[in-house]
Specification:
single chain; 269 residues; alpha/beta; Rossmann fold; 7-stranded parallel β-sheet; 9 helices; globular; SDR family oxidoreductase; Sc_DH/Rdtase_CS
Length: 269
Amino acid sequence: MSATKTILITGAGSGFGEGAAIGLAQQGHNVIATVQILPQLNALREKAAALGLNNLRVEKLDILDHYDVENGLKWDFDIFFSNAGYGESGPVSEIPLDLVRKNFEINVFAPLAFAQRFARKLIDEKRSGKIVFTSSMGGLFTPAGFGTYVATKHALESVAEAMQQELKPFDIKVQTINPGPYLTGYNENMADTAFRWLDDSVNFTKRAELKATFDAMLGVPEGRLDPKEMIDAMIAIVPSDTGKFRNVVPQAIEDMLKESQRNAWEATI
């Protein structure tokens, strides 16, 4: 691939995706920044115009919308940056299964389906390329209260690891990016999802107890990191032709995850 890449990003309507889309365009890459809903489309187009980024193209691509997906696969790009995602919170012991299925559909099945189609397109055209999945620190450990979301990210880790081996002979690279607890609003919004169904008169998990669990994780400085650090890392990782398969940021979270995985071998019931 050339030094200047054409990169399709999903989930670019806010947070990491929006920041990475703008940053990659500012670096000179051709970016197709895709958003889920029309209000995000207009907002990001206005930002791109204000910044003079003629190389930042904004399109609608809801990864669950068949017509959006078919349209998106017609575009020409070198890198698929699968960043769109969603999180359901609440105790796995009690969460309604339709919410679990929904979370897997958004975070695993839809990104995999698009990645499969993109990989096949590259292979048929005898082109090299790259697929980058936004996973999570939660793809490598499991905190109580977020089990459904992190289960999707555990699954995504396995999907990416298998694809990385399978597509290497075709010169298609695969990576994951695993953000730590950055303050984009995503984690806080995810924590709120449980309280739309959790009912003290029905569930054995009580609302106050779950809220205290979330506050302990997200209400401290360590759970509210500056997202610029992660966006800068994405801007460096996504277009690169070399690098690690798994990319955890910041380093302190990578160290914590490695220690957690070591301790898992000695955990008792």
